[in-house]
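Q: what sequence does this backbone want?
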């Protein structure tokens, strides 16, 4: 129980509960330990990342897996002892400290810090945004512009509407910031150039591959896929989050239930519930037709999703007239509001809503929404 013992000492000395402990038995399956670790990190995440301090073995490999699965940035420090844990936790208590601030002194002292190889792609595919390929050249904007011209000629042969945008690494503006600005306004389907920005799920094509035609074929394939890709409501629906014929004393109890189920599956964090109530206080979410669409703040959403609750009898939602028997709890991110456009069209169609209320099986509700979202 070394890990939990260290945590107990650290928290007592610093008068905090920031440090959390988890144990892995010598005969425990690493996959089980990984799942327990992910569960703990998701429950305690404060939107600033996590420092994972481990002693040895497979625990040292967990960081990148956790980052890719949860979107939470993780730094891994091995050969943990009480002094290391004390120093890292003390730094983590500073409100303005970033994740790298917390581990920087450790690196200065020669301790290796493991980071995920790829940056997490925070951007959901949004069919309302134009698509783009970004060219990146280490020697500056001029070379990137020439590369852009070359890639544009390749794309022209496919008669695609993709935009090509150039970035030079030698620039007064930080490269990550420039990429972020581009991805705020475009669906980036590929990066081409001399340096890989390592954005997870966005392919990179090197100049070397481009010159021996492998890259050209890859670009043409990416362009064809991008032209046919369409946003799907499948990404927003989870059959485990559709509930029929459950009774509740009131709307608060129903909201608590739905948020708890979302949080258990990692779609939202612990702060989402309070944000739903804050939204309700600002503007009640009752809609015509006896439905409600409660929703919280996007900063507490890990992955966009909709939870559906079909009640056996009407429940008061807003005043004497605002009764509902169909509730859609919506979790969306800042850049995914348009992602729900087709969903809102369904919810505003009274004929469709009445048909949904007549559905008797959870799976049928999923299929019904998919069918009407594609119309």
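A:
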């Amino acid at each position: 129980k070394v890990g939990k013992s260290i945590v107990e000492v650290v928290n007592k000395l610093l008068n905090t509960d920031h440090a959390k402990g988890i144990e892995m038995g010598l005969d425990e399956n690493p996959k089980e330990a990984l799942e327990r670790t992910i569960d703990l990190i998701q429950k305690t995440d404060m939107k600033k990342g996590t420092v994972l301090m481990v002693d040895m073995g497979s625990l040292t490999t967990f960081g990148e897996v956790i980052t890719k699965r949860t979107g939470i940035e993780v730094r891994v420090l091995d050969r943990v002892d009480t002094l290391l844990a004390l120093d890292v936790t003390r730094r983590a208590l500073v409100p303005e400290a970033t994740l790298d601030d917390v581990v920087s002194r450790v690196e200065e002292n020669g301790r290796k810090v493991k980071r995920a190889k790829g940056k997490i792609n925070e951007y959901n595919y949004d069919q309302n945004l134009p698509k783009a390929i970004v060219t990146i050249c280490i020697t500056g904007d001029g070379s990137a512009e020439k590369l852009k011209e070359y890639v544009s000629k390749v794309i022209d042969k496919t008669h695609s509407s993709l935009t090509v945008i150039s970035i030079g690494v030698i620039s007064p503006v930080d490269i990550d910031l420039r990429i972020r600005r581009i991805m705020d306004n475009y669906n980036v389907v590929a990066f081409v150039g001399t340096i890989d920005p390592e954005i997870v799920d966005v392919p990179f094509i090197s100049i070397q591959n481009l010159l021996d035609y492998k890259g050209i074929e890859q670009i043409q394939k990416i362009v064809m896929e991008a032209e046919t890709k369409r946003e799907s409501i499948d990404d927003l629906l989870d059959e485990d989050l559709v509930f029929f014929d459950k009774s509740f004393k009131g709307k608060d109890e129903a909201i608590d239930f739905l948020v708890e189920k979302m949080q258990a599956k990692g779609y939202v964090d612990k702060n989402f519930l309070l944000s739903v109530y804050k939204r309700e206080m600002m503007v009640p979410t009752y809609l015509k037709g006896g439905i409600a669409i409660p929703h919280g703040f996007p900063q507490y959403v890990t992955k966009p999703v909709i939870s559906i609750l079909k009640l056996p009898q009407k429940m008061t939602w807003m005043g004497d007239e605002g009764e509902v028997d169909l509730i859609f709890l919506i979790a969306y991110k800042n850049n995914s509001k348009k992602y729900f456009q087709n969903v809102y069209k369904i919810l505003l169609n009274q004929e469709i809503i009445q048909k949904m209320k007549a559905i008797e099986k959870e799976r049928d509700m999923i299929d019904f929404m998919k069918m009407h979202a594609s119309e």
